[in-house]
Structure formats: structure tokens, C-alpha cells
What we know:
This is Ion transport domain-containing protein. The chain is mainly alpha-helical. The chain is about 55% helix and about 5% strand.
Amino acid sequence: TAANGSFGGGTWGHGKGSTCGAPHPPGASMLPGAAQGRGQGRGAGSFLWPWCAPLPPRSCFIFDIVSKQAFDVSIMILICLNMVTMMVETDDQSLEKVNILHKINMLFVAIFTAECGIKMLALRHYYFTNGWNIFDFVVVILSIVGRVIRLARIGRVLRLIRGAKGIRTLLFALMMSLPALFNIGLLLFLVMFIYAIFGMANFAYVKKEHGIDDMFNFQTFANSMLCLFQITTSAGWDGLLNPILNTGPPYCDPNLKNANATRPCYNEIFL
């Protein structure tokens, strides 16, 4: 049983099985989202933990529900099921299948809307002090107007990140690496820029065959960069190399300026 008291017309409890409205020491931290008292160690539920304030008994009961890890696990399972319904959609699906998937999607929208409402009822205005809760709220709103923005349903999948500690760690490491990734990308661009100019000067008039066509060629800077990007992915680079290895008419016109197509080491060095 919880040891209950009263404060300003509300109740708080800090006994066994209660996580709601634990007494808050004067001057203690009141930052939303910080786990305090029995809120510590609750896994995904710690994202919901506001500072411990007196709450009505009904709100305390709802808060105890939404702060339990089982509640978050249930929501994660529903999100995975929603992913399955998105994966089974096809372009030529029958009208009956479209109607069934639409009803299932409306069911998920109702469930996630109810989840959002329950959390707002339990956490009150502290619901909007957590970034993940704001994200959930935006996804729910966009899902309600899903006929206009159908792709908003994909946002629900991102909620799985909150429940996966390993993914959050990887994303944090990626964000911390962004400055270094920018420098690496800039260096790669400079290398590709040099090779693009070199390719325009030597392979602009190579005969269009195999991998060389109206889009993939060395006649313009943009097309040259596109060819080099294809080479960096190791996809179809041999199709670009074969026309370059051919010399003389009719593969290239040696009388044209910059028509020397006898540089086979160009691709190899870039690779």
C-alpha cells in the first residue's frame, strides 16, 4: 500500500507499486525527464518521468501505467505490426486489399492517438518538455491528416530508436562524427573535381557505347562527376572503361581537340 498524503488538494504516494507524485524535496531538481525516486532504472519509461508533483488519484493511476516498461514494449510491438502493414502494400493491389489496409491503418492511428492522449493526461504540460514526446505528437497529428501526408506514417518507425539503446548509441556517435565526415566529404569532392576536369580534357569525344551514353559521359562537368560517382560505388565501372580503351576511328575522332582516348589508367588510378 502506498503511504499517501495531501498537498494542495492533490495526493501523492511513495509506497510500494507507486511511481506517481513522490514527495519532492524543496530546492531539488525539477527538470522534466530526469528520473527521480522510483523512476530511476525504468528503461524506456524514464523518458516520461516528470518532476514529482502532487497529482489527482486518477492521474496517478494513469501515470503508473504509462511509466511502466511493459507499456513502452507494447507500443514498440504495435509499431512493428504497423511496419508489416506498410510492407505488404503493392502498386497493383486489389480494391479489397486497399480497403482492408486502410481500416488497419485507421486502427493504428486510433491506438497511437489514444496513447498520445493518455500520456498528455498523465504528464500534463510536462509532456511537451521531452523531445521524443513532441516528435510522437507531431507524428500523430500528421497521421490524422494522413490522406494529405501519407508518408507521415513512416515517422512512427523512427520511434523504435527510443526503445533501442544500441541504435541511439550509434546515432549519437554518428552525430559526433559529423565534423570529421564533412572534412572527408570535402576531400573526396576535391579528388573527384580534379578527375572530372581531367576526364573532360581527354575523354569528351569517346564514342557512346557500353557505359558511355547521353547521361554518363565526360562532355560536361556534371556528367563527369556522375561517372566518377558511379565508379566510387564500383557499379558498372567496366562499362565506362571499355569505350575509353578503344582508340582511333570509329570509336573516337583523333582530329578533334582533346580526342586522345588512350589513357586506360584513368579509371584504375581513381579506383
